[in-house]
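Changelog note: in this version the structure field was regenerated for every chain. One regenerated record is shown below for reference.
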Amino acid sequence: FANTAGCQWQGMGGAVFDLNDQPLNGIRVHVFGGQGVDLYTASGTNTLYGQGGWEIQVDTTISTQIYYIELQSQEGTTLSPTVQITYPGSCEGNLAVINFEQTRPF
């Protein structure tokens, strides 16, 4: 999809949108789980997924590890439900695309 690493890459990406379906930048994306994965990025840092886009690599090989993702404020307050991501264990399923849409004011 997004790179030439093929089976040497596994990750997730997507975009964050506000109440009016407009891109929302600067929201902290937190991915954790797998084998000690605890990673952060911010929405708006990867426009390959559009404005408000983000991407996090979780592994350099294909696995069936379970990961969790949530949105946080810059101060660390959780803003979204925690979503569970399970990969199928194939090169064709090495990217999970997760878009978040705001449903209430922060």
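Spot check on this record: The first strand starts at residue 10 and ends at 17. The CA atoms of residues 25 and 44 lie 5 Å apart.
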